[in-house]
Amino acid sequence: MLYFEKYVETNYGIKINSTYQRVEGDDFAKMMKIIKDASGGIFGLGNITITEERKKVYEFSPPIMSNLSLLITHSSAPSLTNIENIGVVFKG
User: Fold this and answer.
1) Which residues, 6+ apart, have CB-to-CB distance to 47 below 8 Å?
2) Distance between CA atoms of residues 60 and 52, nearest Å
3) Among residues 82, 86, 44, which one has the least CA distance to residue 61?
4) I want to staple 31 with a disulfide (CB 3.0 to 4.6 A). Which of 14, 23, 37, 74 is the partner?
């Protein structure tokens, strides 16, 4: 965020005065709700996966890094061959 602030000031002559607020307990759902309910120049900073569902509610900047997700299970767990079936294969 500091690099963004410097970029805006250098390229557009706009000084951003920001304050940072950490969400108690690092509660991801609470952070997302605070951002959703806010108005004005609010930014949410975190490891947030951009999904089609979230795009309907939030505006995202271009991602700054790719996020490779891994699902690790016990060796006796069934194999998941299609992520669409995760709710069925791992039900319960």
Assistant:
1) 67
2) 11
3) 44
4) 23
Report residue 49: phi and psi, to 5°: -80, 130
Q: Where are the domains of the chain?
A: 2-89
Residue type, 67: N
Cβ distance 35 to 42 under 8 Å? Answer: yes
Q: What is the pLDDT of residues 78-92, one digit of tens each?
A: 988 998 999 999 888
Interatomic CA distance for residues 21 and 38, integer angstroms: 13
pTM score of the predicted model = 0.58
Q: Give percent of the chain above pLDDT 90.
A: 34
- Please state, in angstroms and rounded to a whole number, the distance separating the CA atoms of residues 33 and 23: 11
CA distances from 82 to 50, 68, 73, 77, 88 (A): 20, 16, 15, 15, 11
Rounded Cα–Cα distance for residues 84 and 9 (Å): 45
Q: What is the DSSP letter of 52?
A: H
